[in-house]
Amino acid sequence: ASALRHAARRVLLRNWVGNSTVPSRSLYPHQWSWDSAFVAIGLRHVSPERAQRELETLLAAQWGDGRVPHIVFNPAVPLDAYFPSPDFWRSSTAGAAAGAPEGVETSGIVQPPVHALAAWLVHRADPATSRRRGFLRRLYPKLVAWHRYLTTHRDLGGHGLVSVVHPWEPGMDNSPCWDEPLARVEPAPPGSFRRADLDHGSAADRPTDLDYARYVRLAADYRDHDYLDAEAPHRFAVEDPGVNALLIASEHALADIADEIAPEVVPDPVSEARDALCADADAHRRRARELTAALVERLWDAEAGQFLCRDVRSGEPIRERGVAGLLPLIVPGLPRDVVHALLRTVCGEHFGLGGTVRLVPSYDLLGHAFDPRRYWRGPAWFNVNWLVERGLRQHGQTARADALRAAVVTAAAASDFAEYVDPRTGAGYGSREFSWTAALALDLLK
Ligand code: DGY
């Protein structure tokens, strides 16, 4: 365990670039939004202050409308090292109407809102440093604005849930869940862009060229409408249970944060400002309950025994078993029958945990599109397994959580902290020394 701890720390130290961490030195040379949140959760055991800065750097690139961009570009990295590069997104010009910040280039789409949860966990690792630096006090209004962007601009279905408008937004780029809604999107012409990911990753582990041509089309359409949600066509719009579950978990974290900073902001307990903050905590808890009710109402499928994505354009559920449909396990206060069914599904034939596999795959083991090595079409990912572990533990499934914890740590070490692994054999794919793999293995070792 101590050798592994040492190796994981080394990855995090190597991938730190001064104010934030790159997911991988080769494949992803900038700052990614949800990667940073997961990295901070591990980095808090190495340097609580760096973990705080990781989140601060990301949120410094927040847009005026509250969105937190999925990539914050490092200006020192050559343009051709990653596609789509800043000259594709053109955030400082095309994003001006939505309040893109000046002096930093970002993408215009978002990733799952894990940040408030991460901020809370980072704070708890070293409350004294956090208080001294005013970490939560400074981050809290930004996190509130971020959630508000999602629950207002992104309630495209009109039922209180957040929609994603690009397959990169839920973070599970080429999940079979997107095949059907994506098929409606006209691909960008093949010669109109050049992928950089294939310079570093094997084509068999990555999304296909046709996927990419559609990703490019969707992002360009959004950009060409100035990233304004009310004006963009959003031909791809999906309510995803993973994104919404993470929002709910983060909304609970915001309540804890509001409680925590209340006495710090205003020492006088009877002042109005302090009452306002306490009221905020209640408002966050209420919002979390409302989101939870909407999640169950809109996305729970009792027959499948899991949550399903809903295609907002067709209005229909997407009948594919993606692992995002299990992530609501981290949501407190789900109905008991839902929890029991989810637990059966995690360990049943489709996801096989503790039976045919030791790590939860990203997609149905029996699904028609299952591919054990292609990105989000089957491989097991470490952030997903960290979340499932947390969910199992929260529901008192201690033995299963312990077994999963051990499996995550073992697979991370054996694969040199691979980006993703074959859920059946543990063989590593994608990049190595991947930051969140190291960070989350470290977190589970604690
Ligand atoms: C990529 O570039 O592969 C990412 O997953 C999208 O941000």
TrEMBL record:
One of its GO terms (molecular function) is hydrolase activity, acting on glycosyl bonds. Residues 28-437 form the Mannosylglycerate hydrolase MGH1-like glycoside hydrolase domain. The keyword Transferase does not apply. Pfam families: MGH1-like_GH. Keywords: Glycosidase, Hydrolase. It comes from the Bacteria. The keyword Ubl conjugation does not apply. Belongs to the glycosyl hydrolase 63 family. This is Trehalase family glycosidase.
